[in-house]
Write a structure and sequence with these properties.
The chain has eight helices and ten strands. With 272 residues, the protein is of the alpha/beta class. The chain has one domain. The strands form two sheets. Strands 2-1-3-7-8-10-9 form a seven-stranded mixed β-sheet, sandwiched between helices. Strand 4 and strand 5 form a beta hairpin. Helix 2 runs parallel beside helix 7 and helix 5 crosses helix 6. The longest helix has 22 residues. 42% of the residues are buried.
Length: 272
């Protein structure tokens, strides 16, 4: 059985609105100077809110999540609870991995499959930025580099190190599966001409010294397709593990009622 952690991005967290998690994480010990740090953090949140207001970005809601029983977070949490998967909700990659490591320690197991659920496009999976209309001059204010997994070399140095710092919570003895369920995450970046799954598989295999298969979507993915992907995660990872270094898996293969042409394109890199 796959040991799965589902990482759900919470864009509102970057603006001070922290989402609830499946499990409680122990409170941090307050260090000297914590009041000044908290004041700086509060000011940063206010500056980010002011920027969002100027740009007309509503950080309090995401229309693509759906409402009530069709809300993708609610559905994913229900699926995770039914199937024994772990999940975490946070606004940055380091925060998501804190939750991953906490659950790994709590359960006494490591995860062989990590699913990122949020927004994406060619060359990028967002892990806290959501659909924010990011401009280069705003990256520092939003601490944007920690809120994405990008093919760019500077960002790659950050996310590979985050994975490495939490390697004890990952099962590195077999194949590590990384799924990006964000729109067009398998498409080639128009800036670097690289694809995210191939870059991530190669970088993590080298950094973690294990076999890695990374998956991305070849086009926009809707909530119904995300549900099918998570509900059939073991079948999907088994199919990709069956052989070869790259391939494509149609989500419609796993649900006769799904009207879908979205595929998960995957790349495998073996550690030698």
């Amino acid at each position: 059985m796959s040991r799965v952690f589902i990482a759900l991005e919470n864009t509102a967290s970057a603006f001070g609105l922290k989402g609830g998690n499946s499990k409680n994480v122990p409170a941090k010990e307050k260090k000297p100077g914590w009041k000044v740090a908290e004041q700086k953090k509060a000011q940063a949140y206010e500056d980010r809110k002011a920027l969002a207001d100027r740009l007309g970005f509503d950080y309090k809601k995401d229309d693509t999540e759906g409402r009530q029983e069709k809300n993708i977070r609610f559905i994913v949490q229900q699926l995770a609870n039914q199937r024994g998967h772990s999940y975490g909700i946070a606004g940055s990659l380091p925060s998501l991995f804190k939750r991953l490591s906490f659950d790994a320690n709590r359960k006494g197991q490591s995860f062989d499959t990590v699913v990122f659920l949020g927004h994406g496009h060619s060359g990028v999976m967002t892990v806290g930025l959501g659909r924010f209309p990011l401009a280069e001059q705003d990256e520092k204010l939003l601490n944007a580099q920690k809120r994405m997994i990008n093919v760019s070399d500077p960002n790659k140095a950050l996310w590979t190190e985050t994975f490495h710092e939490n390697r004890e919570a990952l099962n590195l003895g077999g194949v590590l599966h990384i799924l990006f369920l964000g729109c067009k995450t398998a498409e080639q970046s128009s800036l670097s001409y690289k694809t995210l799954p191939k870059v991530v598989a190669s970088a993590l295999s080298q950094k973690l010294q294990c076999d890695v298969i990374c998956y991305g979507t070849d086009q926009e993915i809707v909530n119904e397709e995300i549900v099918v992907a998570i509900g059939n995660i073991k079948k999907i990872t088994d199919a990709a593990s069956g052989g070869g270094l790259h391939g494509s898996i149609g989500l419609a293969e796993y649900d006769d009622e799904l009207e879908s042409i979205t595929n998960l394109d995957w790349h495998r890199v073996n550690h030698v």
